[in-house]
Amino acid sequence: MPDRAEQTLTAVQSPLAPGEQKDRAVLLVVGSADSPGLPARTRLQIIGDELYVGRRADGLPVAANIAVLDDGLVSGRHARIGRGLGGYDVEDLGSKNGTWVDNLRTEGKVRLRDGALVFFGNHIAVFRMVSHIELEAIKAELVAPLGPVATASPTLAVACDRLRRLAASEGELLIVGETGVGKEVYARAVHAASGRKGHFMAINCAAIPRDLVESELFGYRQGAHSTAHQAKAGLIEEAEGGTLFLDEIGEMTPEAQIKILRFLQDRELTPLGSTRPRRMDVRIVAATNRTAAGGGKGPGGLRDDIVARLGAAPIYLPPLRNRIEDLGALAAHFLGTTSVPGGHFDQPAFRALALHTWPLNVRELEKIVSTAAVLTGGTKPIAIRDLPEPIARTIAVPAAPGARRSVGPSPTPAQLEELLRRYEGNVADVSRELGKHRAAVWRWIKKFGLGPQKFRRNE
């Protein structure tokens, strides 16, 4: 049997199936400042060999793929994205307001990296290389989203496809993702799609004192402990016929984890202070924000046997910084839930949102958008002044063509490698940490022979 190193090497070198090769280029339209929530059919633009971008189709090649953007700041013939030697390039076609890539105005042809932000007038888009499986998942999501907002993110669309197919089963699920990515939102979506008639009950295991988690889950009989003056049903009992969502399950004590494992194995509930087990029909969906494993533990420090019961392959939800293509749809959704009618952005504010790294994820976006809507009263566009200062800083000094932004000395190879490791290969985050443009960071990466992909999490 090969040792662990040989197993890992074999896994890395194994070729991908044809449907998994990221060999399809797409432009995922985030939205526009004056209309952040675009119709689903316009959010996905397949590039093929080339894609023309303009305000209208007139004057563009008849047989070409064309992305028509209803935007007064977009020229009739604005830009072209085409396949070049070893990749794809974007070229401005003499537009009045220019084409910008990662907050830099383009001159001539500019090579697009996977995940590049491209700005056309009031519109923002993300360039992605996707597989056939990811492309089909995006198409399905845009037609019939699993959650409240359709995702165009390749990673999240595939996760949604898997959740959708597993929803009707009785099996348990384990969802992994950073705090604020929407784990409970998608757990609720799974419950809604499952057809189960009982309630959806949720408990945040990290927010309840560790010694009370068992009582909350299993309930107790009168006299079970000093404060048990009367019997209390636990969340498992209240979720009979439905779904119980255990958020941050890794925060449970080992003793509580063992009791959950026993319940998963035999589906019998024994309240504290009782000796009579009861058969229960409850589906468990668990979540953790800690993906690191160690010490024989699974994701989030969970026991391996619990991980095996919840699902040997946890479903990963990407952070917002890795799914900026959904920012416009999410912002429109949150604007629609406020008490202030309407709501849109001016161009600098919308660009600043796209350039922000979102350390607190979707939850942070919801709070910022809701607060900004109240500040404007719905009578004027949300502007830079309505956003928190760290977000406003991302676009405070836009770069002119050919301009260079130099803050401090160039990094050493060791420093750049450490930053790539810290930010899991996210070059946008590294560039902001260094105070340098992404183009400069990419030049150093190439010069030092550092491949960001080796630092990225396998999603």
Description:
The protein is α/β, with parallel strands linked by helices and 459 residues long. Among the domains are: 21-134, Tumour Suppressor Smad4 (Sandwich), CATH 2.60.200.20; 154-316, 3-Layer(aba) Sandwich (Rossmann fold); 413-455. It is built from 16 helices and 18 strands. Strands 2-1-11-10-7-8 form a 6-stranded antiparallel β-sheet. It is elongated, with a radius of gyration of 25 Å.
Q: What's this model, at a glance?
A:
The chain is built from 16 helices and 18 strands. The chain is an alpha/beta fold and 459 residues long.
Q: According to CATH, what is the topology of the domain at 154-316? A: Rossmann fold
Which percent range fits the helix content? 25-40%
How confident overall, as mean pLDDT? Answer: 85
* Radius of gyration from the alpha-carbon trace, in angstroms: 25 Å
User: Could you name the CATH class of the domain at 154-316?
Assistant: Alpha Beta
**Low-confidence stretches at least 5 residues in length (pLDDT < 50)?**
1-14, 292-297, 396-408
Strand order of the largest sheet: 2-1-11-10-7-8
Instruction: List how many beta strands DSSP finds.
Output: 18
Oligomer: single chain
Secondary structure category: alpha/beta
Q: Name the shape in a single word.
A: elongated
N/C terminus separation: 27 Å
The CATH superfamily name of the domain at 154-316 is P-loop containing nucleotide triphosphate hydrolases
